[in-house]
Every structure is written in structure tokens, then in C-alpha cells.
Amino acid sequence: MTMADLSIIVPVKDEEEAIGPFLARVVPLLESFDDPVAQSFEILFVDDGSSDTTLEVIRKANAADRRIRGISLSRNFGKEAALSAGIDAADGKAVVPMDVDLQDPPEALREMVAKWRDGYDVVYGVRDNRETDTLPKRLTADLYYRAHNWLSDDKIPEHAGDFRLLDRRVVDVIRQMPERNRFMKGLFAWAGFRQAAVSYHREERKVGTTKYNYWKLWRLAVDGITSASTVPLRVWSYLGAFVALGALGYAIYIIIVALTSGINVPGYASLMVAVLFLGGLQLLSLGVLGEYIGRILIEAKGRPLYVIRERIGEG
Length: 315
Ligand code: UDP
Ligand code: MG
Known about the structure:
Elements: E1 6-12, H1 16-31, H2 36-39, E2 41-47, H3 54-64, E3 68-73, H4 79-89, E4 94-97, H5 108-117, E5 122-127, H6 135-151, E6 160-167, H7 168-176, H8 184-191, E7 195-200, H9 214-228, H10 231-261, H11 268-301, E8 308-312
Parallel strand pairs: 1-2, 1-4, 2-3, 5-7
Antiparallel strand pairs: 3-8, 4-6, 5-6
The structure holds uridine-5'-diphosphate (UDP) and magnesium ion.
């Protein structure tokens, strides 16, 4: 039994039509590389609780080519957990998570491997275009990267997807991280090491459909920020101090007015504004607290990140 040198990890959820074209493009490509690391590759599919025949497709692929393996999770755990499962199971000296939809061109692997040979531990792909995304998605992505990097000390590179090459050393660091919240980009950023970028052109998804809607993206964004920064928790004390100072000033003003020109009864509007504004602010800050406490609960339970039902092929 030989261990692979290059592990390609592919999380798949309901992707029966996408796996065939993916293999047809990636396998010949890797075989064409001169680099010995690519000569010994494995492609590891992580079936993330698919409800179609994805698992069957992986089984057939494994029967035809032993370099293709699979892990099947017991249910849908989400892409980040599926990626963790893949990273835990990969043997390679270099590990590359990739989407099955071929939006990230596998041809970029050649340059990634070359950069890795030059001594970089993380080589991440950066999209030189986002036209394939809709305008709202581009804007929200932009906003997210900005908010994340402003709030957190671990900067994530903008427009870098999950498509990247990781040296074994980095993989071992990621595997040691105990947290349940697997916001992968954040974990990679935290790990550090020598990082280099490779730019590529992102293509349209050709088969199947995107598994992400705006609500899922929003949850991912909240996961990312809450796992990387405590600024949202701490900002309220400053905001509170600021509002309290304002209130003090206003109180002094009211007292002076009352003393100089008698009691001034009207004030319904300002009262309503103050009550509603502060009420809203308090609910908002409670909500932020809730986001963090909920995550503390999840971490405290310490459940496994994913459950493997079956392994197809062995490495
Ligand atoms: N995926 C997964 N579990 C999920 C959702 C998605 O494993 O719960 C996989 C999916 O099969 C694909 C990759 O994650 O290989 C990226 O998904 P998609 O292309 O839908 O995301 P997008 O490119 O639209 O961000
Ligand atoms: Mg995609």
C-alpha cells in the first residue's frame, strides 16, 4: 500500500453529474505533470450526506481507479466540516481542497505545485474576476472581506476561495485545532506559515447548482467573524459609554432649561426616539451576545465535527 504525495480533497453534496466531468479533467491533468509529487496523487471525495447517487458514482470511480477514494458522512454536516473530514483523512505531503464544479480551474495546480517546490507552505488561489458571481454576491463578498479584516487580526486574503495547496506542516496544525467552528479560511489565516498567491480565472458552474443561498452565506459570514474576533462583543461598552455621556449632557441641558424658563412639558418625540433607539440597541447587543454564547455552548459540548459512515477505498 503506497501513500499518496498529493491529496486532492473534494467535498460533494448531491453532485452525481459533476463528479464524472471533474475526474475527466483532473486525472489526465495530474498525470501530465512532470513533478513526481503529482505522479503519486489521490483524489478523496467527501460525500456530505448526499441524497442522490453521488456515493454510487464515487464507488464506481474507486473500482475503476484506486487512486480515487471516498469518505461518506452520516448526514449533511456542511462543506466546512466535510473539508475537515477530508483533511483528517488525507495522506499527502501536499493537500489541495477543491470544489467539484470546476469553477476553480485545476490547471492552476501546476503553478501551485511549483510555488510549493519553491518553499511556500500555503499557496492560495485568488480569482482575478468575479463576473461569474451576481452583483449582490460580489458586493456582499466585498463587504464581508472588509468587515472581517477590519475586525480580526488574522487577515484573510480577499477573493481567495478554498482552492489552495497546503503543505503537510500546515495540515497538521489545522488538524490540531480543537474548535467545532470550522471557518476554514480563518483557520488557514491563523496558522500563518509562508504564503503565496496564484491568480486564476473563475469559471461558470457548468453542471449542478450552487449549494449556497444568501442565508447560508450570511451564517458563514457570522461564523467567520465570531470565530476570528471579539470586537463585536466589546464594542457595546464603548457605545454604552458614548450614549451615557450624551444622556448626561442632555440632562444638564434639561435642568438648565427647567431652571431658567420653567418646566417644559412637551417632549413626546424626543422621549420616543430615545426609548426606541436604546431599546433597539439593547436588543442588538443581546443578539450579538447570543451569537457568541451559542457558539460557546457548541464548543463546550465537544461533539465530533463529523461522523463517518463509510470509507471507500483505503489510503
Ligand atoms: N458542498 C458540500 N456540502 C454542502 C454544500 C456544498 O460538500 O453542504 C460542496 C459542493 O458539492 C461543492 C462545494 O461544496 O463541491 C462548493 O459548493 P457550491 O459550488 O455549491 O458553492 P459556490 O461555488 O456556489 O460557493
Ligand atoms: Mg461553486
